[in-house]
Amino acid sequence: MLFTLGLDSEFALLETVLTCIQDEFPKLRKYKSHMCIGLGVICFFMALPCVTPTGDYIVGLMDSYGADFSVLCVATCECVSVLWVYGVTRFINDIEFMLGKTPAPTTYWLFCWVLASPLLIGGLFAYRLIQYVPPKVKDGVFFPEFAQIIGWCVTSVVLCPIPLYFVYKFIITPGKVTERLRIVTTPAADWGPNTKEKLYNADTQFTDIGKAAYAYDNPASQL
């Protein structure tokens, strides 16, 4: 049961990574099977230390620093960026476009998305920071200091891209400080689901298919 549980979770994680890469580099979509095999082999070799005699300590370190603070912080940022910055109204319209109907009961979902989810997840993240205790090798024995430093480095690698990219976009955006802040926290007007009209417009406006809408050359997106 644990094997199948880990296996189906790995499918979703691997597909997430592949989708991100293919959205950024659309021309790689034709090589999805090769990318899947290559990424699977890389992950296999990266996971080998976890089955060594010290693998239990490595897994404990990864679990404490890679799947605790990081997940809660990223989830909080996702809720805030999608539901507060992008806007819950736009989010509901996108869902209605995909499902063909408005999610019901709408009031319940609005409460969960706008208030419950970001506040509860953010509260859990703050609680974990306040009540932080270094991970233990066994009862009463904490991980050595160098191991904790490695753990915090892992957490930093996961979390740093969020503020760094925000600062990068803020710096390259023209205008005054308030104008920059408004621009970087406002969704692009041309962003949204790939309707037929948008696909046809992209075909007439771009000669290089790689510069068109990211889903344009994906056969699954042809409506």
TrEMBL record:
The keyword Chloroplast does not apply. Its main location: membrane. SUPFAM superfamilies: SNF-like (SSF161070). Coiled coil: none annotated. It is found in: Membrane. The keyword Membrane applies. This is Uncharacterized protein. It is a multi-pass membrane protein. Keywords: Glycoprotein, Membrane, Metal-binding, Sodium, Transmembrane, Transmembrane helix, Transport. It holds the Pfam family SNF. Na(+) binds at L5, D8, S9. The chain crosses the membrane at residues 36-59, 65-87, 108-129, 149-172. GO terms for biological process: amino acid import across plasma membrane. InterPro entries: Na/ntran_symport (IPR000175), SNS_sf (IPR037272). GO terms for molecular function: amino acid:sodium symporter activity; metal ion binding.
